[in-house]
Q: What sequence folds into this?
């Protein structure tokens, strides 16, 4: 299974099925941010895709890193990465 196929498969599986109740405390934007980072996007790009397409320059320099440093978001990113690795080994 290549990366593109893994990404497509992850997009079809609901978050709760992958992560259980771990992601229930996050907002939908935080969940999307975590998924984008786990897929390999930079934090700035993940922020643009999840929150605002054209943030102010001062925002894009700080806010993606603030979101990523949130312990719940960091756990979510790690959980997505582990789920992607498990899916790779499963096939």
A:
């Amino acid at each position: 299974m290549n990366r593109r196929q893994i990404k497509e498969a992850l997009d079809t599986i609901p978050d709760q099925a992958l992560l259980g109740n771990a992601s229930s405390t996050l907002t939908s934007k935080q969940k999307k941010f975590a998924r984008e980072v786990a897929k390999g996007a930079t934090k700035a790009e993940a922020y643009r895709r999840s929150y605002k397409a054209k943030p102010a320059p001062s925002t894009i320099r700080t806010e993606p890193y603030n979101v990523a440093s949130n312990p719940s978001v960091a756990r979510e990113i790690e959980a997505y990465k582990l789920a992607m690795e498990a899916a790779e080994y499963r096939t």
